[in-house]
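Schema walk-through. Below, the input block comes first and the output block second. Nothing else is stored per chain. Lengths vary across the set, and this one has 166 residues.
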Amino acid sequence: MLRLSHAAPTRVLLTVLCTLLVLAITGCAGLAARDPVRINVVGINPLAGQGLEMRFNLRLRVQNPNETQLDFDGVAVELDLNGRPFATGVSDAKATVPRFGETVFAVPVTVSAFAALEQVLALADGATLDNVPYTLRGKLAGGLFGTMRFKDKGTLTIPGTGQGGR
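--- output ---
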């Protein structure tokens, strides 16, 4: 008959806890500090819409100022114009942004009839479609570091009214 002392389970538990602690410390050391990724609107091009909706291809530039490449396999965006919600979009776009590199990709966005009406009413109050202030919020999905949220602010020109983007 095998007899275990009370010290044996405690020793096993202590060994397991120490091993987990060492793994956690070395795992965190491997996650080096990363500079934030920069995402900017570089253009907006019209697409065919259906019914009362308008659709655009929102072109985004992703700049990676880090020593490791950035992989993502999806994006979701919300675009506000003149401080009002304007368009939303999602894409299952997959891209790799090289270390210290950049890439441009498009996300199709939809503008509801209500959001378009709000912008028309803003035009009646004297706003223009040239150098319109915008706020872009969104997230890049996937990759080694999971979902990465972003925010960008600037001005853009709505197609057909002037020179073009940012």
